[in-house]
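ERR on first pass: missing label on line 2. Operator R.T. fixed the label and resubmitted. Corrected input:
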Amino acid sequence: MSDAANSSYVAAGERAIAVKGGLLAKYPWLRGYLLMSPTLLVMLAMLVAPLVALVVRSFWTQNVFQIDTTFTLRNYAQIFELSDKITYWMSIPFPFANPVYLILLVKSILMSLAVTAFVMLLSYPMAYFMAFRVRRHKFLWLILITVPIWTSYLLRVFAWKIMLGFNGVINSGLIKIGLIDKPLDFLLYSPTAVMLTLAHAWVAFAILPIYVSLEKIDRSLLEAATDLGDKPWERFWHITLPLSAPGAIATALMVFIPTVGDYVTPTLVGGSGGSMIGNNIQILFGRQNDAPLGSAVSVVMMALITGIVCLFLWAVGYRKIRAREAI
Amino acid sequence: MTKRIDFLPLYAVLFLIFLYGPVLLLPLFSFNDATYAVFPLKGFTFKAYQQMAQDPSLLNSLKNSLMVATGVALVSTTFGLLAAMGVTRYKMPGRGPVMGGIMLPLVVPSIILSVALLVIVRQVFDIPLTLWTVGAGHVLLCVPFSMMVLMARLEGFDKSLEEASGDLGENGWMTFWRVTFPLALPGVVSSLLMSFTISLDEYVMAFFLSGLDQTLPIFLYSQLRFPQRLPMTLALGSTILVVSTIIVIFSEILRRRGVQTTKPSGL
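pass 2 clean. output:
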């Protein structure tokens, strides 16, 4: 009796082990998640939780020293509150009571778009050159393009400050040559300086992904196009450009999204005219000590960026392009 | 057949000048014997570098940065390796969104990540801002890079090597140390170096998440306000530039060679 009970107990234990082993055996991918779990937990704690906290905070308010945790839309109301007094920026009307947030947002987005377009125009030919023309020393070219990506962003901004400054390299150089007799004061501390510096900072970054998507193109397709009578330019237009489009689009987004929120560049080379929304967020969290309003501005910024990205992907028919790539 | 002029190589050269020109001004002016970074150049001097080596707050921030960067490199490579092993070995449902989530720090503006972390660190948990918080922020930025590098490396090599080790009676742990890890080593080193440089150079997160202890970029940034300290700042900038360039070249060589040798013919 006790033997029987014992053996059934053992059997149950074996069954339990079998089930446990079985779950992992039945769904081997669970092991994958098991391996990933430390990383996922860290990401959850340091990425998801802070972003959730940021969104929650945007619905609270700051009373001088304390935070009032009653749910309110006051911060958002402050950003979007309408007013009869219309403020104009670049002849765009902003009928808001506190137009500074939305003006800075629109300005940052427009500047980022310009930077992205400039970066794509500069980097695509370079990526094309590396993918189709460079035969020998390809590795050297790759290193030459990769090194600037990883060397300090702050230092590159610093370098442009030296270039564009009132007593900077360009001004002193031009005076030396005799082209001008007084330093040009519009070089530094302007939106143009910010955009130039940002473009320079991102242009190397953009080459690699475009280069990879050009490298992947089956060369026999190009030969076929030539055999069928396409001129080089037509061949580029019909084959190379469409096939590299997914990579190029992804790259454009990777440049556009982070630049909207950049604040180091505008602080160092932008002056008051070149400031962007990132500066505003930094001031709200810092000097103005209004984290809830700063959170609300951040949330609005992320929502706008997401909206623009989705609109853009829809407009260029990204799904269709991707599907074509899969074939 | 008419020979057309090919503008692309010319463009490539001009592009490289645009890319490197402004940055190379830093070392150029750091040896210039003048307070302003203007042409024409004056005499050649090491003064700025001597000044740099004697600045106690600089040396202190250098020490802080090295500590943080070393820790970040180790931690983010560990997390990256675990995640890369999970993703490359198993066909996991929901892999796409999970990967997207991990890669998110690559695209979200770092000011958003910084303020979000600041909110949770200061206002939710009330943790004091130290080098630890800076390191935590940097890990968040580095894990996606570590994971990408290691995924490329792990995808490259033959899974049957691990299976063979299992069949020959090694347990999972020993298989990892005797097969997986040695094969992944170039990727591991590359990931260590890459996270080290990212952390060493990172400014925005360090600015928001550091307390009284400065890191090197924060120190550098604070020096930019003083025109009379420009020579020393230039010298510091040039040093950082040279060191990170060497690390990056080394890491790239390892990474690219690592991926190449794993093609079937290389085995």
